[in-house]
Specification:
Length: about 850
């Protein structure tokens, strides 16, 4: 395989997702000056977020993957996902690629099947198109301004859609975009920094119109009313004219909106109509709707019933199939007409040997339901059950009846699943015992089949790939006896990291059908819930307050922007640097969100005993971890990796760092054990309702600290959690930079309030790191009479080994400060991004005084 790759530049091959493990080449780091955007379009020039309006079913659609405003590149590795039932990928092309005519395909996968190259990745699957390409020689493009087509995808439009996501696949690491399968490389181990913009395919431009209630009911001489709801579908955006059709058999008018003009440039418009008044009878009203600028028209009709108050009786089942000795139920509904409010009594007549009862024989207020229970004795005969409702009030309405046909098979069987409801962790299996019982001396083979339906999941983009099976699939039922089989349904969880092949969490129903020739199939159901937990998004430290539950049961955390990269400096605690415990805003902290999925009752790392852990260390209990003398407490050393992906030995980390661990989380009680485990019930203000399933975001402080011998550079690390049998991890990046310091400082020792009304500091900061850094200096001052001030510079960037000079910071003074001596200090917040200043430096920090005079 290596021979086949020799024609490609090895500097290109390393960053590509599939080929990373194959070759290792020592390279110098490359600086990346710009963050570009990878996006979709049906043309070759501009990104689009919506397309497909002119693509009918059966047509071919070409979607271009574009690169906008990037650094130079000599290769890429991109995976795109779309619903295969809507858009079926048929091929990819490098024609017109920004890489030029010499670009070669390294890997091409379609729907998880290999077309070109050594192999597909675990993220490939149905609906995924995957292309990796590269060139030999120097990267192409201009720094910060490289734009053009990466490649194109050809889709066949399978069916109409009001909005199908077309997105870049997720679940990859070490790429240009965190957790996203998009890598753009310039030939070094560090890919270009990019952003992505997903899109939506919609080839439907239409609207719906519904009248509610329908039928419209009113009494003689009284006008009735209803609402007309219009809903835009797909790309439809227009004003719609409403009118009453002349064919309507009752007088009607549109009362709102004015002029009957409905605005569907927004998703929904609700109008009102009035019908009547009229004499007793049954009428029809029709509302027409036509787009003003688009040739789209629809209408809706409704029956109008004008009558004295009355009611009707209906049965949810028009036929009951009950074997001798068996029973069944149907829901009986009483529905009021024209404001009927009397109580209604329910009775039933049935064939010989058939008994009927109701969960309630009286429906109060003219509206409600009752469950009818029908039991058939061994001598029961088939026929018709007649359910009758009688007005128990003074209106004299009714009576009204509904028929229910009853059939009795000559022989039969019943099927039961035990347990019929359960919850399982993702990756586990549900097991239930299926019992088939003979009825009326039935004997013979019964075959079992199962269908699993999704009743609502909360894992977007994941699948319902649950495999059902029976052991045995066919049972032999003896006359008057029973037979049993075991039912299994296995869910999928690929690894500790999220995957597109993981089974979606949420609620499911298994419908088990038992069949044998000549007999009515029997049904048993099992409801089950698949639960899990997940990590992310993650936030840098900041000042924005977020409650950690949907209510105020817990203390808030203070976060900044979303980030998966943490920056700290080489300055240690002993030198006055950050302690890395997540207290306040001193840096060295990522706030990691913990989410309950599929009904898992969880308050993250503070509620249900989810343990933050290192999977390679034994124990996983409260005392788990490696004792690090420099820290003074037990820390759970995370799996940490050099920039080339090689894991760093724990013996090295203990001696040299960096130390990365789950921190104190939400609660900073003085007696808290800074270990790897967060036990349920540890805090008195944990008052979440136990046993109530909900998605509950909690936060964990993930902290980092440099020791005296820690090397600067780029690291990556895993943070993992365990809850019962569930095990999940997330991958992060840590950048350790040389601590910047103040090299220039000037201020006035005695400040005259009358002269200038303020003090102005002027300072400079030195960058001694090979990275471009962003810094913000904070001045904190305390006066001898208790007054104080805190001021900051703007966030400024400093090139590698360069200085930022003459940064001016004014401090406003007030008359009450006259006579006070102010003592002040400086602190530098630093990061490699202007929105994630998670590192702290106090090296060469200024500590001085000034006095305010009249």
């Amino acid at each position: 395989m290596l021979n086949n790759l020799k024609k490609f530049n090895p500097l290109l091959i390393i960053p590509l997702l599939l080929l990373t493990p194959i070759l290792t080449v020592a390279l110098l780091p490359a600086a990346h000056a710009a963050t570009g955007t990878v996006c979709f379009s049906t043309n070759t020039s501009a990104c689009q977020t919506t397309f497909g309006a002119t693509s009918p079913v059966g047509s071919t659609l070409t979607v271009y993957v574009l690169l906008q405003g990037s650094d130079p590149l000599n290769g890429f590795d991109v995976q795109v996902f779309a619903d295969h039932s809507v858009l079926a990928g048929t091929g990819m092309s490098l024609a017109g690629s920004v890489l030029g005519p010499s670009a070669s395909i390294v890997v091409e996968c379609l729907d998880g099947s290999l077309v070109v190259g050594p192999s597909c990745t675990p993220q490939d699957g149905v609906g995924v198109v995957h292309l990796a390409s590269g060139i030999t020689g120097s990267p192409v493009g201009t720094a910060g301004a490289t734009s053009g087509v990466l490649f194109s995808i050809t889709y066949t439009v399978q069916k109409s859609s009001t909005g199908t996501p077309v997105r870049f696949n997720t679940g990859c690491s070490g790429t240009s975009v965190a957790s996203t399968c998009v890598t753009v490389t310039n030939g070094t181990p560090t890919p270009n920094s990019e952003m992505v913009s997903n899109a939506t395919f919609a080839n439907v431009s239409d609207f719906t119109i519904v009248i509610s209630p329908s039928p419209i009911e009113t009494t003689p001489g009284v006008a009735g009313s209803a609402t007309v709801t219009l809903t835009a579908l797909g790309t439809f955006s227009d004003l719609v004219q409403l009118s009453i059709n002349p064919a309507s058999t009752i007088a009607a008018s549109i009362t709102s909106p004015s002029g009957g003009l409905c605005d569907l440039t927004v998703p929904t418009c609700v109008a009102s109509i009035s019908v009547g008044p009229a004499s007793a009878g049954t009428y029809m009203v029709r509302v027409d709707a036509s787009g003003l600028s688009t040739p789209v028209s629809h209408f809706a009709t409704s029956t109008v019933t004008v009558s004295l108050p009355d009611f009707k009786v209906t049965s949810a089942k028009s036929t009951l199939d009950i074997p001798s000795g068996g029973s069944a139920t149907s829901v009986i509904t009483v529905t009021p007409i024209s404001g009927f409010t009397d109580n209604v009594g329910l009775t039933a007549t049935a064939p010989t040997g058939v008994s009927v009862s109701f969960s309630s024989t009286t429906i109060t207020g003219g509206s409600g339901t009752s469950t009818m229970i029908v039991s058939v004795s061994s001598s029961g005969v088939a026929g018709t059950i007649t359910v009758t409702g009688t007005d128990l009030g003074t209106r004299g309405a009714g009576p009204h009846s509904t028929p229910v046909a009853l059939t009795i098979p000559p022989f039969g069987f019943a099927v039961l699943a035990v347990p019929g409801a359960l919850s399982i962790p993702r990756g586990g299996s549900l097991v239930s015992t299926i019992t088939v019982t003979s009825s009326a001396n039935f004997a013979g083979p019964v075959t079992l089949t199962a269908a699993i339906t999704n009743q609502g999941t909360d894992s977007a983009g994941l699948t319902t790939n649950i495999t059902p099976s029976f052991s045995p699939a066919t049972v032999n039922v003896p006359a008057g006896g029973k037979a049993q089989a075991n039912f299994f349904a296995t869910t999928v969880k690929g690894s500790a990291f999220p995957s597109a092949t993981d089974t979606a969490t949420g609620n499911y129903t298994v419908t088990i059908t038992a069949t044998t020739p000549g007999f009515t199939p029997r049904i048993a159901t099992i409801t089950f819930n698949v639960f899990d937990f997940s990590f992310g998004p993650s936030y840098c430290s900041g000042s924005r307050s977020i409650l950690t539950t949907p209510n105020a049961n817990f203390d808030p955390v203070f976060v900044g922007g979303v980030c998966d990269t943490m920056t700290i400096t080489t300055q240690t605690v002993a030198q006055g640097g950050s302690d890395g415990q997540g207290v306040g805003l001193e840096g060295g902290t990522l706030w990691l969100q913990v989410n309950a999925l599929g009904g898992l009752t969880s308050n993250g790392f503070n509620g249900n005993g989810i343990a933050g852990l290192n999977p390679q260390l034994p124990g996983r209990g409260a005392a788990t971890g490696v004792f690090v003398p420099e820290l003074g407490f037990r820390a759970c050393l995370a799996q940490t990796f050099w920039a080339n992906g090689t894991q760093i030995p724990y013996s090295y980390l203990q001696a040299h760092g960096p130390i990365i661990a789950p921190g104190a989380g939400l609660y900073l009680d003085s007696g808290f054990n800074f270990g790897c485990r967060f036990d349920a019930g540890a805090y008195p203000n944990d008052v979440a309702n136990p046993g109530v399933p909900f998605n509950n975001p909690d936060f964990l402080a993930v902290t980092a600290q440099a020791l005296s011998t820690t090397l600067p550079g780029t690291y990556s690390f895993n943070i993992c959690g365990l809850s019962g049998s569930l095990f999940n991890c997330k991958h992060y990046t840590l950048v350790i930079i040389q601590a910047p310091f103040v090299h220039q400082f000037a201020h006035i020792g005695h400040v005259s309030l009358s002269a200038n009304g303020g003090q102005s500091f002027k300072l400079g900061v030195s960058n001694v790191d090979p990275n471009t850094i962003y810094v913000q200096v904070t001045f904190s001052g305390t006066g001898s009479a208790g007054d104080s001030f805190t001021v900051q510079t703007e966030v400024v960037s400093i090139a590698p080994f360069a200085n930022a000079n003459n940064l001016a910071v004014p401090v406003a003074l007030t008359p009450k400060m006259v006579g006070e001596v102010f003592t002040f200090t400086t602190t530098i917040a630093v990061g490699i991004s202007p929105t994630a200043l998670t590192g702290v430096s106090t090296l060469n920090a200024v500590s001085s005084t000034f006095t305010v005079v009249p």
